[in-house]
Amino acid sequence: MPNKKTVLCVDDNAANLRLLEGMFKMRSHLQVLSAATPEEGLELALAHHPDLILLDISMPRLDGYEVLSRLRQHATLTNTPIVAVTAKAQLLDRMKGLALGFNDYVTKPIDVQSLLNKVDSLLSPD
Confidence band (pLDDT; 50, 70, 90) for 126? Predict the structure, then answer.
């Protein structure tokens, strides 16, 4: 069996975290880490160097843009795919997120199959 890939989910909404965790339970090749605060997300990312990060934008204290900026400052995370998973669904929000360095942008409510396809694509070897 190939090595497990680690996906870090960062969202301050417990229901959203449960949804993301549940999406990946049936995928035995994935290990899921969850963070309910942006600070915890940063700590987990630096400690575990995940293969993919799913990051909410609207969070207290540090928004997803600031978390993204801080993650990209670490050499071990500069090439880690980071996907915005957010309720900010306007075209300008999406354009801003991609311009600031998100690898992809997913809006809530989450289309589960679409997100799973994006995760598979981002985690697949080139």
Answer: low
